[in-house]
Design brief:
Helix content is about 40%, strand content about 35%. It has two domains: about 60 residues; about 80 residues, Immunoglobulin-like. It is of the alpha+beta class. The longest helix has about 40 residues.
């Protein structure tokens, strides 16, 4: 009976020893992986790159749904700048138009604050007009959510 008792004790000791070795190895590998991630610059760079790619995809998705703010249309006797005011709080005061010889620059912006989010929309677009324009006869009008700037072309008669 003592052989049987010794065998039973050895069996339990073997089981306890195997459990301790398994727990030690699990702890060792968990610490090794954690330290590797903490101190390996390549892991940190890959992680940062994943985050940046995710943010770029989010930004691209938002930009695809954002319509162009300014459209330039040329007729036979005038240019028309049509500015979409929907993203600018429907206020033409958020738009600035300046002229420099044959160049027209449209700029504008707005700061929007919500509960936990703040967004800034700012834009500048410049156009070089091929014809001579008459800046003194520029007309500006707001029609619903559009701000229309009419720039007449000078007659060369």
């Amino acid at each position: 009976m003592s052989d049987e008792k010794n065998f039973c004790i050895l069996k339990y000791l073997g089981f306890v020893l195997a459990t301790l070795i398994g727990a030690f190895l699990a702890f060792y590998f968990a610490v090794d992986i954690t330290l590797e991630r903490m101190f390996n610059p390549m892991y940190r760079m890959k992680h940062a790159e994943k985050i940046m790619n995710k943010e770029f995809k989010h930004f691209d998705k938002k930009m695809k749904h954002m319509p162009s703010l300014v459209h330039l249309v040329k007729n036979s006797d005038e240019y028309k700048l049509i500015i979409d005011l929907r993203n600018l709080d429907n206020d033409e005061k958020n738009v600035n138009v300046s002229f420099d010889k044959d160049m027209v620059t449209v700029s504008g912006g707005i700061d929007k604050s919500r509960k936990r989010e703040e967004s800034v929309l700012s834009f500048t677009q410049s156009y070089v007009l091929s014809d001579e324009i008459d800046i003194s006869k520029v007309k500006k009008e707001k029609i619903r959510d559009k701000y229309i700037i009419t720039i007449p072309i000078k007659d060369n008669d």
